[in-house]
């Protein structure tokens, strides 16, 4: 069989995956805290038909190797952790991290801790700060944040501190926990705008809770009343979609042409 046919198949598979990633990006263009992905390609190991001949000074010139490529493969599917645009909601529990860091949430004692950039939080019936799926938002101590019954109002500062107003005055009752990740692209998406820490994100998959707006730690400030929107750029996505579509068509033409050549070979017998 012709090598070009298998090269065309590998190209079609690669561009199909690229279209899948682009489709997911476009579908999440309005998802709070969503980070878009991209597909990177690399060539497959080439077949060497003739090796390299070294040159001999004054006697013989060098000859390059003759290699035939065998197609393309996907080298990586990256998650791009650039910041998304801010959307002002004026809801006091809507939070945005202006800089690096992630919010930490958990379903309860003993449950895994996940990270998120989606700050659409609310206080439930038990005055617990939770996300849209009812998971507890964790403080800098790694504990759920709960308002006391005597609290009449509250505000959240840029350092993540929750200032509660009671009949006795105003006091800081908790501080949001912010998690720094060395390699955000190494986080694993688990759905629901959540990420799981892996060994490639932080050493041994471990992490610590920090406070927000700390220049020494490099954590971003917490902005109340705003949400971080998706970082997907529709202009770029539609451009990449055109490139992927044309690439898919070109590779399908390679298969068609290879099939016609094989048909000519079969017809030699007639």
From TrEMBL:
InterPro entries registered for this protein in UniProt: Flag_bb_rod_N, Flagellar_FlgE/F/G, Flg_bb/hook_C_dom, FlgE/F/G-like, LlgE_F_G-like_D1
Residue ranges constituting the Flagellar hook protein FlgE/F/G-like D1 domain according to the UniProt record: 97-163
A Pfam family reported for this protein in Swiss-Prot or TrEMBL: Flg_bb_rod
Domain Flagellar basal body rod protein N-terminal: 5-35
Cellular component aspect of the GO annotation: bacterial-type flagellum basal body; bacterial-type flagellum hook; cytosol
GO BP term, pick one: bacterial-type flagellum-dependent swarming motility
Ranges where the Flagellar basal-body/hook protein C-terminal domain occurs: 225-268
Keywords: Bacterial flagellum, Cell projection, Cilium, Flagellum
Cellular location(s): Bacterial flagellum basal body
Name of this protein: Flagellar hook protein FlgE
Species annotation: Paenibacillus catalpae
């Amino acid at each position: 069989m012709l090598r070009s046919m298998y090269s065309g198949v590998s190209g079609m598979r690669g561009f199909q995956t690229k279209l899948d990633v682009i489709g997911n990006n476009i579908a999440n263009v309005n998802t709070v805290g969503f980070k878009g992905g991209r597909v990177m390609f690399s060539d497959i190991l080439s077949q060497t038909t003739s090796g390299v001949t070294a040159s001999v000074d004054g006697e013989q010139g060098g000859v390059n190797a003759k290699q035939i490529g065998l197609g393309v493969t996907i080298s990586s599917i990256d998650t791009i952790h650039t910041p998304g645009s801010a959307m002002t909601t004026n809801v006091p529990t809507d939070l945005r991290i202006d800089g690096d860091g992630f919010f930490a949430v958990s379903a309860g004692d003993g449950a895994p801790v996940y990270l998120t950039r989606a700050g659409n939080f609310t206080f439930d019936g038990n005055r617990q700060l939770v996300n849209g799926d009812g998971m507890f938002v964790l403080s800098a101590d790694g504990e759920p944040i709960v308002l006391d019954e005597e609290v009449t109002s509250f505000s959240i500062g840029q350092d993540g501190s929750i200032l509660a107003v009671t009949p006795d005055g105003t006091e800081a009752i908790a501080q949001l926990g912010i998690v720094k990740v060395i390699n955000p692209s190494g986080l694993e998406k688990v759905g629901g705008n959540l990420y799981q820490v892996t060994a490639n994100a932080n050493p041994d998959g471990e992490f610590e809770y920090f406070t927000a707006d700390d220049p020494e730690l490099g954590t971003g400030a917490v902005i109340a009343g705003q949400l971080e929107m998706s970082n997907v750029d529709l202009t770029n996505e539609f451009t990449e979609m055109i490139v992927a579509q044309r690439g898919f068509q070109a590779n399908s033409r390679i298969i068609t042409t290879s099939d016609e050549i094989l048909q000519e070979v079969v017809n030699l017998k007639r």
